[in-house]
Specification:
The chain is mainly alpha-helical. It contains 1 helix and no strands. The protein is elongated, with a radius of gyration of 19 Å. This is Oxalate:formate antiporter.
């Protein structure tokens, strides 16, 4: 197992793919957390 400590950052043409992947996961996650907090607030406050 070789360790290459001089890894270069992703090339610019791949950055859009990484950004898209984070948005693809992050937006539904943020919405789900928002809904969870909203419903939990309704549940505990009546």
């Amino acid at each position: 197992m070789s360790s290459d400590s001089s890894q270069s950052p992703p090339s610019p043409d791949r950055r859009w793919l990484i950004t898209f992947a984070w948005v693809w996961v992050g937006v539904p996650l943020a919405y789900g957390l928002y809904e969870l907090v909203r419903k939990a607030t309704q549940l505990f406050t009546g």
